[in-house]
Prior knowledge:
Elements: H1 3-13, E1 25-29, E2 32-35, E3 40-43, H2 46-49, H3 58-70, H4 81-94, E4 98-102, H5 105-124, E5 130-134, H6 143-148, E6 166-169, H7 173-179, E7 184-189, E8 192-193, E9 199-200, H8 203-216, E10 219-223, E11 247-250, E12 261-265, H9 286-299, H10 302-320, E13 325-331, E14 334-339, H11 344-354, E15 356-357, E16 359-361, E17 364-367, H12 375-390
Parallel strand pairs: 3-15, 5-6, 5-7, 7-10, 10-11
Antiparallel strand pairs: 1-2, 2-3, 4-12, 8-9, 11-12, 13-14, 14-17, 16-17
Bound molecules: pyridoxal-5'-phosphate (PLP).
Amino acid sequence: MNFEQIKEINNSSAMPTYGRYDLGIASGKGTVATDFDGKEYIDFTSGIGVNCLGYADEGWADAVSSQAHKLSHISNLYYTDATALFTDKLTKATGFSKVFLGNSGAEANECAIKIARKYSFDKYGEGRYEIITLLSSFHGRTMSTLTATGQDALHPDCFAPYNAGFVYCEKDIEQIKAAISDKTCAVMMEMIQGEGGVIPLEKDFVNEVCALAKEKDLLVIIDEVQTGIGRTGKLLAHENYGIKPDVVTLAKGLGGGLPIGACLCSEALGGVMSAGTHGSTFGGNPIVCAGASYVLDKVNNEAFLENVRANGEYIREKVSAFKNVKSIRGMGMMIGIEVEGKTGADVVKKGIDNGIICLTAKTLVRLLPPLNITREEIDLGLERLKSAIEE
Ligand SMILES: Cc1ncc(COP(=O)(O)O)c(C=O)c1O
């Protein structure tokens, strides 16, 4: 089947929810994706932050396939070794007490929202359910996480009514103070707003929010769906801010290419989601957990993380010298580039012609390369990106 036939079949059978590029990928190995005509592309997207070890990492593929041969799925009615070993590894690696496993970032955030409301209900009774989120945030596409998302453009009338209980604020401590009422139970934020335009939060602001939340007994929920699992050069991005949140959500890179969502909580919250209050048929699937255990072993390593920081610095330094680059922001290998006179979409399209795939974030070009990319691959990718930005 050629690419034209694949496109036609896809477009006639799949709902038209995605604006796809005119590109189909047939296979991938490491940092290189190959299209249906055999053309190779350096991948600076990691499948939107998912393939943190690149395509078809040998160790990851072995871990996944040997678990698939042993036990693929059984449900959460029973114990399995792959799931138990993974939850133990993840809680120990992150310093959180308990984890709930789902299948996506949105699901991880749904769990976080439920924990915040139930914690508050159990302690204070009814009515304390509001969650403060930030403008330009992105928390998912389910009705609750979409409502939590602080972007008017993502709240069209056709999906109304949106869920009650979310309040949006600028990244301004006075606005947050003013928004807190006797209905508030939590504050939820990303350390770097990814979809919102690669916008890192200020350290002082984050620390002030955490202090305020502590004073008012509000839970601090950090959405690390995009920033977590080594992306910023620390295992979790909030480590860059020196804070200890109550709840952290993960997805994307954690699975290394298979669907996973994780909601981690502190010791004090470990018993909030009691039996029967939450669940997922696929959550904690042994195959996914075997792959995620492998990812965690690789990424939770100081030399690996140091390399992410060094490569991020290297990319930022090189890109800032390109003609037409107005500004560059981000942390580690989560990078946003503002280009003079061109939108991110212009650059991404030109990049595809040049053999590099990148992302956009609002009007910016966004780079989320595999965390184990080599310097040679970075150099080749940057050469192609340079001409897409400069031409
Ligand atoms: C910060 C953040 N939260 C939540 C989500 C939603 O994750 P998923 O698409 O896996 O539901 C995303 C996805 O881009 C995200 O970047």
